[in-house]
Amino acid sequence: QVQLVESGGGLVQAGGSLRLSCAASISIFSINAMAWYRQAPGKQRELVATINSGGSTNYADSVKGRFTISRGIAKNTVYLQMDGLKPEDTAVYYCKAFVVGTTAGDYWGQGTQVTVSS
């Protein structure tokens, strides 16, 4: 079973920065892509950013220019650098891994709370 462990959430003032981390308990060769999603109270979960095995990235329009997704040297770790945070960025942030091979499937982390105060 694949496990994703997230960290780095917290409370920050508007304009501040946070860095989220997500480590997967699986070989890099089994990970096709990784992504960050978020879910605010009363809203549907939405895609924030993705990064594939080749390093290509994609962002939601609402975070372009403020958030940066990257993969660690080990490549089974993904980061989300969040700068210029706004109160509307407040949500639970989830990591997701798209896994291929014998344990193929989509796996989610437990979520980490990000709260941005005005």
Would you mind describing this structure in some detail?
The chain has no helices and eleven strands. The mean pLDDT is 94. Strands 2, 4, 5, 6, 9, 10 and 11 form a seven-stranded mixed sheet that branches. Helix content is 0%, strand content 54%. By secondary structure, the protein is mostly beta strands.
Keywords for this entry:
118 residues; 4-stranded antiparallel β-sheet; single chain; 0% helix; 7-stranded mixed β-sheet; mainly beta
Summarize the SSE layout with pairings:
Elements: E1 4-7, E2 10-13, E3 18-24, E4 31-39, E5 46-52, E6 57-59, E7 67-71, E8 77-82, E9 91-99, E10 105-108, E11 112-117
Parallel strand pairs: 2-11
Antiparallel strand pairs: 1-3, 3-8, 4-5, 4-9, 5-6, 7-8, 9-10, 9-11
What does this entry show, briefly?
The protein has 118 residues and is mostly beta strands. It has strands spanning 4-7, 10-13, 18-24, 31-39, 46-52, 57-59, 67-71, 77-82, 91-99, 105-108, 112-117. Helices cover 0% and strands 54% of the residues.
| Record field, number of beta strands | 11
- Please trace the helix and strand order, writing H or E for each element: EEEEEEEEEEE
**Poorly predicted parts:** none
Radius of gyration over C-alpha positions, nearest whole angstrom:
14 Å
Spatial shape? globular
Strand content: over 45%
Tally of DSSP helical segments: 0
Task: Determine the structural class based on helices, strands and strand pairing.
Answer: mainly beta
Provide the residue-averaged pLDDT: 94
